[in-house]
């Protein structure tokens, strides 16, 4: 039994829509990650390192090889800096 040509139009539309949606989703995910593939299975150590990278470079995916941190790195910690009275 031959395939009627009318069935190819909806099939082509559905295939095109799924392909366009998947491609756009991939482009958006990579744009949010500075052009790198998304990370999976992130542990607490990875979160700490991503926060450190954010403080160093301004991006959670950015890294730098400069051994000397910028001036503001010492004071832009996420921890509240309060003086504790010791007696």
UniProtKB/TrEMBL annotation:
It comes from the Eukaryota. The keyword Mitochondrion applies. Keywords: Electron transport, Membrane, Mitochondrion, Mitochondrion inner membrane, Respiratory chain, Transmembrane, Transmembrane helix, Transport. Its main location: mitochondrion. Residues 55-74 are annotated as: Disordered. It is found in: Mitochondrion inner membrane. It is a single-pass membrane protein. The chain crosses the membrane at residues 7-28. GO terms for cellular component: mitochondrial inner membrane. Accessory subunit of the mitochondrial membrane respiratory chain NADH dehydrogenase (Complex I), that is believed not to be involved in catalysis. Complex I functions in the transfer of electrons from NADH to the respiratory chain. The immediate electron acceptor for the enzyme is believed to be ubiquinone. Belongs to the complex I NDUFA1 subunit family. This is NADH dehydrogenase [ubiquinone] 1 alpha subcomplex subunit 1. It comes from Hydnum rufescens UP504.
């Amino acid at each position: 039994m031959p395939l009627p040509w009318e069935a190819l139009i909806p099939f082509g539309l559905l295939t095109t829509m799924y392909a366009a949606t998947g491609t756009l989703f991939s482009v958006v995910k990579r744009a949010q990650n500075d052009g790198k593939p998304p990370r999976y299975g992130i542990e607490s150590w990875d979160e700490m390192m991503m926060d450190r990278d954010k403080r160093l470079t301004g991006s959670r995916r950015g890294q730098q090889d400069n051994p000397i941190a910028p001036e503001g790195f010492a004071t832009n910690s996420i921890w509240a800096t309060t003086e504790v009275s010791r007696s």
